[in-house]
Amino acid sequence: MLNISCIYKMKDIVTPILNWYQENARILPWREQIVPYHIWLSEIMLQQTRIEAVKKYYHRFITEVPTIHDLAVIEEEKLLKLWEGLGYYSRARNLKKAAQIMMEKYDGRMPECYEELIKLPGIGEYTAGAIASIAFHEKVPAVDGNVLRVVSRVIGSTKDILLPQTKEEITNELKKIMPENSGDFNQGLMELGEVICVPNGEPFCFKCPLNKICIAKRDKLTDLIPVREKKLKRKIQEKTIFLLYHENKFAIRKRNSKGLLANMYEFPNMDTFLDEDKISKKLGEWNLSAKKIQYIGKEKHIFTHIEWNMIGYKIEVKEKNTEFIWKDIDEIEEKYSLPTAFSKFKIFFEPTLFDYGEE
Asked: Do residues 251 and 287 lie in contact, with contact meaning Cβ atoms separated by under 8 Å?
């Protein structure tokens, strides 16, 4: 349990947080009006993605999918294309599943309480708390990493914030102090963690509305709090990426329906590093033969638990096969959802980068 003296200290954060947020809240597109659908969409997009990066995706998505009904009936291909660049594509699929449930059970509206929201696909404790408090003024916390960091520093907690028990304890204590304006309070705590009580580097304590009561500042512990256990090492996976082309048509294929990046499109690839001799052999297995092969360099992409170390080759083939989908650049860009990991090689789509003349 949290120390009782710390609990009393938490009561003192409410008014400073609300006042600070009223004066310093950033202008964001999903804050222009309180629309539950917009809040939900923005919260899902903001998982694993920074605010500045999300803005352009949010505008694009809202323009193409303006309502819950539109989301419920959108074709998966279009949905994944709109989500391209945000990663974690299961989030997009869960959005559609949740929208379909809303159409069936809630007449196309979002449920208005935490207990119903958390039952929907892709909506966990934090997201349910954010939507319920911001859109429907329910007095529930929304506890993410920013909130855990701010609270841990204020009360001087040295408990590991990656442990579920620590999150549960802080959540329970926040429930006791939630004000009527719960949405602003939750957003204020999150915003404070994003722009003042930052995760990397020195926090800007001189700007913080809680600096007079913060134990970590007082005791010079901001570099030690919050406590986080060491993350498990990611699995390293080697990949060879093939940019195959014939007469300005490029080869892509659809990934499996299960697992990482399910149902997305990709460049043909192998889960190992291949040299040119092994590449030629692999092309033969695909009923292809190379006219030109050129190494195009290395790239790296990090997922939550896996790191891809990739090498790429651009290869002009003498003929197309039937195993792959062959499309021109514009059609791939417009219609096919290519994950960011593979998009790193899209620079080599440029025709001038493929035109070497006759050997």
From this structure: no
Nearest of 106, 127, 135 to residue 33 by alpha carbon: 135
- Sequence letter at residue 64: E
Question: Long-range contacts of range 165-174, CB-CB < 8 Å, 24 or more positions apart?
Answer: 167/143, 169/1, 169/2, 170/2, 170/143, 171/125, 171/141, 171/143, 173/2, 173/7, 173/10, 174/10, 174/141, 174/143, 174/147
d(CA 146, CA 52): 17
Amino acid letter at 120?
L
Q: Which residues are catalytic?
A: 43
C-alpha distance across the termini of the chain, in Å: 74
> Helices 164-177 and 145-155 sit at what angle, rounded to 10 degrees?
80
Q: Is 50 left (phi over 0), alpha (psi -120 to 50) or beta?
A: beta
Cβ-contact 157, 226 below 8 angstroms: yes
* pLDDT tens-digit profile, the chain (359 residues): 555 445 557 889 999 999 999 999 999 999 999 999 999 999 999 987 888 889 999 999 999 999 999 999 999 999 999 998 888 888 999 999 999 999 999 999 999 999 999 999 999 999 999 999 999 999 999 999 999 999 999 999 999 999 999 999 999 999 999 999 999 999 999 999 999 999 888 999 999 999 999 999 999 999 999 998 866 678 899 999 999 999 989 999 998 888 888 888 999 999 999 988 899 999 999 999 999 998 988 999 988 788 999 999 999 999 999 999 999 888 888 888 888 888 888 777 664 444 433 33
